[in-house]
């Protein structure tokens, strides 16, 4: 049974904000963070099927490998291509959004501007996780 | 025949000379006195005939070339009469060893021969001696003397004439204009070329104001022809000189003084046509300048393109990189407000709110800047688009605000045009936003959107019942960051209309507006139906 969320983001503050928000949510999920796409792929490869996260949250602007590159890599990998990847970024760029959805992103959301927004996002992700787990 | 002496036969006096010379010839040839007389008589007879009946007669005395040497008297004249019938001729025939008559088209020729004993022993040197002795023989009579001098003069004159002719032929055939001047600058000679060029003779040229023949831009300043001539120094110049057709053609003008001590200075000069070379020179120069200008242009275009690209990049990167820290500021200030709001006094609360508002404004400004920088011609995705569809989509984006303000937006039918869907939607959204934003207090906004076709353009009108604006601000309104109201009353970055104009212009269209304060405004967007690229 899969559990947990993988957050791929090089920004330490954003990592903290998300994890903090998750604490205050019903049905909070454990969060594992990686700072870039390469490390994240290595992490995923090291897990058995049951230990894989149920949702991946990925930023776009990252060093070593961009978010869309990471997304592409996940979607062509037999082992983890079924895991929904949500692009989690600062700016809303219509072209970029279309491109990411085209590669196979589950959703494309902006990072929160307010505290309440951060709670809402955490709730939404946690619910998504629960729904996926229930389906299994 | 080896010529020894010549006598022209014009009158009776010449007859005497002819007789005397013939005698002498026979004498030096070694003939007896009687032979001499016989020979001389024969010559006289024929000569008399010629003088009486012929024209331009001439007697030539000499020695024949044949092995059997004879003295020869050859009498020529212009053929006027057939000499054969004359008595004198028959008589002469009997006196000589041989008589030949030749008649050609324009000349009679009668030859009298008298054999010379031991003629084969006569050498060339002897003949030369005989010839000089004839030449140096003193005149036999005053008439002879005068005649001789006269003949010498004629010969000299002929030589001079030939020499002049030769000179003239040379000067007339060299493709140069040649001229000579006297010490006062008056023209003394021009060659045929020069005559043909100017169409003026020497005397005409001298009467003429010659400075008129030189192009006014080329005329040497403060110099007259005379002053140049007085300087007695060679002169070279490139002038445009006028020909008889009024054309000014480039010539190389060269003039040189011929200085002879004690004599007045004469001048010799020439003009060479260099018009073709000058024209070529000018063309090459123009060409070079054109090439340089072209290179400059190409360089500037490259620079501009590079600069443009850098700017685009900068705008994109800056807005991206600026958004991130800004978001943090907004997020953290929001956290403080919601978590510590109750702990703050009034002023702190106000300042905290000020901080958040400022951050929000900055965020919108960055977004607008990004939007503005992205309106780029290269990025125009031209397709056939339905303006009505786009307008309806834009209106639906404002659904919430429309509901909030109880606004009413109406549209008439809009055509299809060639354009970029995204850009056009942004354009409409900006105008709608303005129409909704600048409404009058307590009056529900009314926005009427209509369109008319004008030539190859569609003109869309956004008419609202808002606060309006003073038309004197019209030019400023569409420029960057220009706002007509303080930021307290109406939120906005002042980029909206600038973006609208840029989008309209990217489509080769235009935008303008009309308004009256407190009586609403109308914005007119003109867009071509087709893009020609």
**pLDDT < 50 stretches of chain B:** none
Using the CA coordinates, give the radius of gyration of chain A: 14 Å
Name the shape of chain B in a single word.
rod-shaped
Shape label of chain A: globular
Q: What count of helical segments of chain A does DSSP give?
A: 5
Classify the helix fraction of chain B into a percent range: 40-55%
What does the average pLDDT of chain B come to? 86
Specify the biggest β-sheet of chain A. 5 strands, parallel
Q: Provide the structure class of chain A.
A: alpha/beta
Q: Tell me the radius of gyration of chain B.
A: 57 Å
Q: In this structure, how is the largest beta sheet of chain B organized?
A: 5 strands, antiparallel
Multimer state:
heterodimer
Largest sheet: spatial strand order of chain B: 1-2-3-5-4
| Amount of beta strand of chain A | 15-25%
SSE sequence of chain A, one letter per element: EHEHEHEHEH
What does this structure look like?
Chain A has five helices and five strands, in the order βαβαβαβαβα. Chain A has helices at 12-23, 37-45, 67-76, 94-103, 115-135, and strands at residues 5-8, 31-34, 55-58, 85-89, 107-110. In chain A, strands 2-1-3-4-5 form a five-stranded parallel sheet, with helices on both faces. Chain A is globular, with a radius of gyration of 14 Å. With 533 residues, chain B is an alpha+beta fold. Chain B has a five-stranded antiparallel sheet with strand order 1-2-3-5-4. In chain B, helix 13 runs antiparallel to helix 15.
